Amino acid sequence: MPVLSAGTGLHETLALLTSQLRPDANHKEDMVFLKDIFSEKSLGYLMKIHEKLRQYERQSPTPVLHSAASLAEDVAEELQSGPMSVEEKELLQLLTSPHLKAVLSVHDTVAQKNFDPVLPPLPDDFEDELDEESVKIVRLVKNKEPLGATIRRDESTGSVIVARIMRGGAADRSGLVHVGDELREVNGISIIHKRPDEISQLLSQSQGSITLKIIPAIKEEDHLKESKVYMRAMFDYIPAEDKATPCQEAGLPFKRGDILQVVTQDDPTWWQAKRVGDSNLRAGLIPSKLFQESPKPSILPPGVLPSAHPLFSLACPPTEDCDCEGYFNGQYIAGLRRSFRLSRKDRSGSPGGEATPDPTDPDFATYEEVTRYQHRPNERPRLVVLIGSLGARINELKQKVIAENPHRYAVAVPHTTRPKKPHEKEGVEYHFVTKQAFDTDTLSNKFIEHGEYKENQYGTSIEAIRSVQAKNKMCIVDVQPEALKTLRTSEFKPYVIFVKPRIPESRPAPILYCPTTHMPLSDEDLQEMRQSAQQMDQQYGHMVDRVLIKEDSASACAELRGILERLERETFWVPLSWVRT
User: Which stretches make up the PDZ domain (predicted)?
Assistant: First the structure.
C-alpha cells in the first residue's frame, strides 16, 4: 500500500483507499459495498470542502474590510446610474438578492465583533461599607423585556428582597440572582429608602446593561431544570381581574383548553408556567391547583400573611412588585377563586355551606395533567364521542360518515326491550333482550346510558363498544354529555367532539329551516338553540377536545372525516393517567 505523506489531503487518501480494495472470495460483498461508498461523488466533494476549510483556518484569515454590505450597496447604486451590460445586470441582481445581503450582513457582524454585548466598566464609587465577601455585583443585559423578577419589602428589617424569579426571564437565564437576595443598588443608585414601586420603575426604565449590588441569601436557590409537567387548563384565567395575584403584570393569561408547561411548583400557591407553542421564553404566574380549588374566600388586611390557613403556610407576601409596565400594590386577597368559575352555586343549599370538590364538575375543574399520545397499530382505535346541542342532529352526521366507510367506522349496537320487526336482525339494528335482562344489566352498570321511549327501554352498553373495537374499527357513539364521566377512561381514550349548529347572531340573517318540518325557525327557536349550546359548553366544555360548527350536512361530514383520519396518524394531548403504566 502506498505511503501517505503529511500533506496528503482527505480526498486523495480516500482515492488511495479505494484503489487498494481488492475483492476476495470471503469478503467480496463487503469490499464491493465499501468501494461503492468511497466512490460516491458527494463524499469526495465533502472531503474537498473539509480540506479547503482547514487550509483557510490555518491561514488565520482577517477581514479585508468591515463594511462589505455598504460596499455592495455603493456598487449597486453605481451600476444603476447608467446603461448596463448583461454581466452588469447579472451582478446587480446578485448584489440586491436578499440571500447575499444577509450573508454580507453576517460577515460585517463577525468582522466588527459586535455580536457580544459591550458592558461598561464597573464604577469605582461603589460604597464599601459592606464586607467584600458579603456583597455580589451582578451585571445583566436585557433589552425591552422585563428583568423577570419580583421584589418585596421585608416587614421586619425594611430590606428589599427578591421575592420570585420568573423562569426563562433575564434574571433566571443569568443564574446570578436568587430568591431571598437583598437588593441594595441599581446602576449605582441606592434603593434602601425607595418604595418597591419606585425600584420597579427604575428597573423597567433601564435598558442594555443593569448593574445590581446584592447581598446574597444565606442559602441560594438552586438553578433547577425546567420540569416536564404539562397541564390542560380547564378554565379561563385573566390576571388583570385577579386581585389575589402577587403581581398582575407577571401573570400568564390563558383560556380553557390551553396546554401549559408548568416549569416550577416550588410555591404551593402560585405556579410558574408557559403556554405550549408560545415564543415567549419567560414564564408567567398562574394559580396552583390547590389555590384555585380553595373554596373559602377571605380578605386579609394589608401586611398580614394568611399563615394560619393550611393552604397558605408558604403563601406569597402581601405585595410583590416587578419591572413590568405598571405595578400592583393593593390588598392581598386570599382564596377569592369563585369569581373565576362559571356561575358557581352553593352545593349545600345553606349559607356558608362547603362543597366537596369534584374534578369532573366545571365549577371545580382546574387543571388536568396531560401528555402527548399517538395511536399505535397494535392498539385498539380510540373511541370517538359526539355530543351535540339542540339542532345539531349528530345521529344523522354519525350515520353518514359510517355509511361512507363501514370497514373503518362502526356504531355500538344498542340494546332494546321492544319486539323485533320482521326486517331486523339480532345484533345488527339492536340487541333484543327481555325487560328483566335489561333491568339486570342496568343494575350492574353495564350501560353508558339508557332511557325509555314509548314504554320500551333502550341503552348502549360498554360491551357493545368493546365489540366494535375488537374488530379494529373506530367506534363512533353519540351520547348525552352526562355519559362522558363514564367514558373518559384509559381503556377507551375517547376523543370528544362537541357539535353545534351555526346560528346567526341577529336578524337580518339567512333564514334557517327545521330539517323535520321544513318550516322557518322562529327567533324563539334560535334563542333556545343558542342557550342549549351555551349551557352545554358551560357544563361539559372542559371535557371537549374539538368543537365542530355545523354549517350544513356536507361540510360537517367532511370535517368529521378529517378529524377521524388525523386521530389515526397524529399526536394528541391526553390525560397522563391514560398512558401511565
Answer: 137-218
Return mean pLDDT, the chain.
77
The structure's pTM equals 0.58
The yes-or-no verdict on residue 521 having pLDDT over 70 is no
β-pair partners for 141: 209
Residue 327 neighbours by CB under 8 Å, 6+ apart: 196, 197, 200, 201, 247, 249, 321
User: What pLDDT was estimated at residue 367?
Assistant: 93
Query: In a 3-state reduction of DSSP, which class is residue 2?
Result: coil
User: What per-residue confidence (pLDDT) applies to 22?
Assistant: 67
Residue 173: all three cell numbers together: 437565564
Specify the residue for cell string 383560556: 255
> How sure is the predictor about 322, in pLDDT bands with cuts at 50, 70 and 90?
low
Amino acid occupying residue 246: P
Is residue 579 within 8 A of residue 373, CB to CB? The reply is: yes
- Give rounded-to-5 percent helix, strand, coil for the chain: 30, 20, 45
Give the closest residue to 473 by CA, choosing from 406, 426, 553: 406
Q: How many Cα atoms within 13 Å fall on the side-chain side of residue 228? A: 3
Residue ranges of domains in the chain, CATH in brackets: 10-58 (no CATH), 68-112 (no CATH), 132-215 (2.30.42.10), 229-340 (2.30.30.40), 378-578 (3.40.50.300)
C-alpha cell at 19: 484503489
Contacts 24+ apart (CB under 8 A), 14-21: 14/38, 14/43, 14/44, 14/47, 15/44
Q: Burial letters for 51-64: b for 16+ Cβ neighbours within 10 Å, e otherwise?
A: eeeeeeeeeeeeee
Q: Is the pLDDT of residue 317 over 80?
A: no
Q: How far apart are CA 71 and CA 531, in angstroms?
A: 67
C-alpha–C-alpha distance, residues 511 and 522, integer Å: 9
Short-list 181, 206, 190, 183, CA closest to 125? 190
- How far is 323 from 148, CA to CA, in rounded Å? 8
* Beta-carbon contacts of residue 316 (< 8 Å; ≥ 6 apart): 163, 164, 246, 267, 269, 270, 332
- Determine the average pLDDT of the residues in 373-392: 89
Instruction: Cell 362543597: give the residue.
Output: 355
Are residues 539 and 387 in contact, defined by beta-carbon separation less than 8 angstroms? no
pLDDT one-digit tens code per residue, 59-80: 777 788 888 888 888 888 888 8
Can you tell me the distance from the alpha carbon of 17 to that of 4, in angstroms, rounded to the nearest whole number?
A: 11
Q: Angle 471-476-478 (CA atoms, 0-180°, nearest 5)?
A: 145
Averaged pLDDT, 246-256: 86
- The residues near 546 (Cβ < 8 Å, ≥ 6 apart) are 495, 496, 497, 498, 563
Q: Which residues contact 297 (CB under 8 A, 6 or more apart)?
A: 333, 334, 335, 336, 337, 338
Position 414 scores a pLDDT of 93
| Core vs surface per residue 226-246: b (16+ CB within 10 A) or e | eeebbbbbbbebebeebebbb
Return phi, psi of residue 104, to 5°. Answer: -65, -35
Grid cell 339542532 is found at 391
Intra-chain end-to-end CA distance of the chain, in Å: 59
The candidate with the shortest Cα–Cα distance to 210, out of 145, 153, 257, is: 145
Identify the bridge partners of residue 553 per DSSP, sorted by sequence position.
none
Query: DSSP state, 289?
Result: H
